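Supplementary Note 2. Why include the ligand at all?

Several targets in our set were suspected to adopt different conformations when bound, so apo predictions alone were not considered sufficient. For every target with a known small-molecule partner we therefore ran a joint prediction. The input for zinc ion is given below.
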Amino acid sequence: MDKVALKRKLLDAVEARADDIIAAGDWIWCNPEAGFKEYKTADYTTGIFRDLGLEVEENIGLTGVQAKINGRDDRPNIAVIGELDALLIPEHPESDPDTGAVHSCGHNGQMANMIGVAMALVDSGVMEHLDGSVTCMAVPAEEPIEIEWRRELYDEGKLFFLGGKQEFIKDGYFDDVDISLANHMATNTEWKIAVRGGEGPQPGGVGFMGKMISFKGAEAHSGAAPWNGVNALNAANIAMSAIDAQRDTFKDTDAVRVHYFITKGGDAVNIVPSEVRLEMMIRAASVEAIKDASMKVDRALRGGAIALGAEVEISNIPGYLPSQMQGSDTLWRNMRDNAFEIFDEEDLVVGTADPSPIRTPHGAVSDINDVANIMPKASFGVGGATGVGHSRSYSIVDKYVAYVMPVKLYAGMVFDLLWDGAKLARQVTEEYEPQVTKSGYMAYWKDILEG
Ligand SMILES: [Zn+2]
Ligand SMILES: [Zn+2]
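The joint prediction is reproduced in token form.
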């Protein structure tokens, strides 16, 4: 069979599975679970992979699952990534009544997409004509939430990172992956698929590090003898003002954001607060800017403690790396060309979303950035949802767009990358220069955390 006919067969296999793919998206929407707790979703995915006759690796990064679909060669190996986790928004009308979890970031769509790729590759039998393999990955915990709980897992030695993809990297599950493909749903019904980016360097996303901070003072009667206490809340207050005083030292182009909240403000209103705890994120567009902001924040925190004669304990937590580059123009062009080949032009947006001359990095964070630092990665935007992401108003309104269409784009790309001796995949990997090598990844993070 020639290339065109075989690729058609693969895309037809996606269409033939449309109902099953939508059913998967619906099932996961109805069974939302927060990061590193996605046991039901992982079991569900494992069941589908096994029904397809695939061998499944389970419990990767606690709850992750993956299945490799072999072609004529083991490598190049393309990962198609779906995120398992939901958010916690109890106010959402369709959130889980017990946990408050809901897929208000649309990760159930990514999971349906990834599952659809496995279905279509197996059903169509195209892998026996392709020179490489595809790994379908269900990764835990993209959303950096419930940090205190995740720190307990860290203390128990069960995790090092907050994000599931990072745990996959740490444990070597990306070692035999050459290219990663991902997507994310947007809240938009005007277009259906967005192929952002372009030729040459592109603005990436910011990265971050976390901090857990504890000010320790001494309790005393707030009315009768406050002079016997050391007010940890006042120390934190001075520290927060001192952090604010640093803000005009952050360069606009570094896109630094320092934000925090008080997780413990004291014990009782009539007791001088003896312990105050803060959780903090420092975001920026480069590792250097994160380290610089972290140093200034630490200075401010210590300043608050010194002023009151309190103590401060700061523990730095790995966040996600900034992604500073597109990685591979060839991969981007293939994504764009497939989008034009498979979909109607009026359903697409292609190119940069930001026409301003200074294009700022995206202010949200994702651990897909860590993957993009070590290997070529392409991701695209998906429509079909409305409301505000990460809020009670989020809902998926066009299931075909959200769940089925992205499968076709993945399938088209995987096919092209691995066709004819996997020439295209090899070109992509040869062009790519990692920011960090896979083997140097842990040391790179440890250096950020130690400042
Ligand atoms: Zn999100
Ligand atoms: Zn998300």
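The chain has a mean pLDDT of 94. The two ends are 57 Å apart (CA to CA). Comparable summaries for the other entries are listed in the accompanying table.
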